[in-house]
Design a protein that fits this description.
The protein has 435 residues and is an alpha+beta fold. The protein is built from seven helices and 24 strands. The protein has helices spanning 3-12, 25-28, 98-140, 146-185, 399-407, 410-419, 422-429; strands spanning 19-20, 36-43, 45-47, 50-67, 73-78, 85-86, 91-95, 188-190, 195-198, 207-208, 215-230, 242-247, 253-262, 272-280, 291-300, 304-308, 313-314, 321-326, 349-355, 357-361, 365-369, 376-380, 389-396, 432-433. Strands 4-11-14-13-12-15 form a six-stranded antiparallel beta barrel. A five-stranded mixed β-barrel has the order 2-22-18-19-23. It has a four-stranded antiparallel beta sheet with strand order 3-16-21-20. Helix 1 (3-12) packs across helix 6 (410-419).
Length: 435
């Protein structure tokens, strides 16, 4: 039985396919076939359950930055493309610089004028100061009137002020030149870091302005997954705990890491905060912006009977959560993986619904009380078992197969079946097993 067949069986449960026919007249009541369902079952085990908190994370590159222009101008040259590796200081884009060069020339000319005026003011100040010295010497000999010496002193003060004003104009002109030179330099947009270029949004001829993103840059060798923690989680989640990042679809790849840091500031409305997991990404499997599942391991549960999450069933009649258990299977019965072509169905055996208390839940396993270890429990096909007890044929499977099925999302199942040939789907849905 392959994966596609099992997927078909999962989706076909609501319409009660995946039955086993039984033509025994003693069981059928007057010759009509009584359909005996087929289910999958696994042996419960015993142990402690890793306590995990599954969170949704978003991948960001290390030193991830967005590049914006600092001036408004037309793009004349784009020097890099998506995926390019750049070093700090490398040019990324050139903008039209004609008007910026002209402004710089005007500022430089204004600086030269200001410096010339400052020299004139300095010469005039020197001349007036010399006149003041002579006037003061004549005043000591009473050769000039007091009003004349006061006039000389006033002229000296005015000349000194003119010189200071001229110096200030020089400094102002120098600042203008520096500003215009900086504006001209901004016509070449350079990389602020060593990294990889992505999300290019620049083309030759575009008019760009501040606030318009042109590129995103980041270092891909190490990335970080950002997750949201509630204030409740902060009581048992802390930095340094093991984290497992799940990447992929039907057969996800897990990457081990550690919870690197937690922001101490909570949002005033949501009362949540951000945590980050640094992840080595030398093979570039993780991409910035990608959504990943992040499991944070924060301890272990008490010892209990362990069952797959898919074995838990809520009784529609009583609302109790439990599992379907059989005492009719041998503990040494060989379990097979789902990829085995042989169906390995047992003879019909009886199942009983047993309510359980869920002690702890893991990613794919639950620790329960109420069922003893090594009992065979149904993991697939509970909806086909009527009432609190029923009879079914059993396909014993191993834990690896059950975990593989649990990873599959219903959308993936539907897509897999829709892509299968119509004839194969029809044959799979119509399978009946004879006793």
């Amino acid at each position: 039985m392959d994966v596609k067949l099992t997927l078909c069986l999962i989706l076909s449960i609501p319409i009660t396919v995946f039955f086993t026919g039984c033509s025994d007249s003693a069981e059928s009541g007057g010759g009509r076939d009584r359909m005996i369902p087929a289910v999958e079952a696994v042996q419960a085990s015993y142990g402690s359950l890793p306590l995990t908190e599954r969170l949704s994370g978003v991948i960001k590159a290390r030193n991830q930055v967005e590049i914006y222009p600092e001036i408004s101008a037309v793009v004349t040259e784009v020097l890099v493309d998506n995926g390019a590796l750049v070093n700090r200081g490398d040019p990324l884009i050139r903008l039209r610089d004609n008007e910026f060069r002209e402004r710089l020339k005007q500022a430089e000319a204004g600086l030269r004028i200001a410096r010339a005026q400052a020299k004139q003011a300095e010469a005039r100040l020197s001349e007036i100061q010399s006149e003041l010295v002579r006037s003061e010497a004549l005043a000591e000999k009473n050769l000039i009137t007091p009003s004349e010496i006061e006039t000389a002193r006033a002229d000296a003060t005015s000349a000194e002020a003119d010189f200071e004003l001229a110096q200030a104009r020089v400094e102002q002109s120098e600042a203008t030149v520096d500003e215009r030179r900086e504006s001209l330099a901004r016509t070449i947009i350079r990389s602020p870091i060593d990294g990889t270029v992505g999300t290019r949004n620049a083309e030759i001829g575009m008019y760009v302005s501040p606030g318009q993103r042109l590129f995103t840059l980041g270092q891909m060798d190490t990335v970080r997954a950002t997750v949201i923690l509630t204030d409740r989680m902060l009581s048992y989640i802390e930095t340094g705990q093991r984290a497992e990042i799940m990447v992929g679809g039907d057969q996800p790849v897990s990457i081990d890491a550690r919870l690197s840091r937690i922001s101490p500031f909570l949002h005033p409305v949501t009362h949540s905060t951000e945590a980050e997991v640094d992840i080595s990404n030398a093979d570039r499997v993780l991409k910035p912006g990608q959504f990943v599942a992040v499991d944070i391991f924060y301890g272990e549960s008490e010892q209990a009977t362990l069952v797959p999450l898919s074995a838990l069933y809520e009784s529609p009649r009583t609302g109790a959560t439990g599992v379907f258990v059989t005492d009719s299977l041998s503990g040494e019965l060989a379990a097979v993986g789902g990829s085995n072509g042989d169906l390995n169905l047992t003879d019909p055996v009886s199942f009983t619904f047993v309510p359980v208390q869920v002690i702890a839940r893991g990613r794919m396993t639950a620790g329960v009380a109420g069922v003893e270890p090594d009992r065979w429990i149904v993991t697939l096909g509970q909806d086909l078992l009527a009432g609190e007890s029923s009879t079914a044929r059993v396909r014993p499977v191993n834990w690896q197969w059950v975990e593989r099925l649990q990873r599959l999302q219903r959308d993936d199942l539907i897509e897999s079946i829709l892509k299968a040939p119509q004839a194969e789907r029809t044959d799979s849905a119509a399978i009946r097993f004879q006793p």
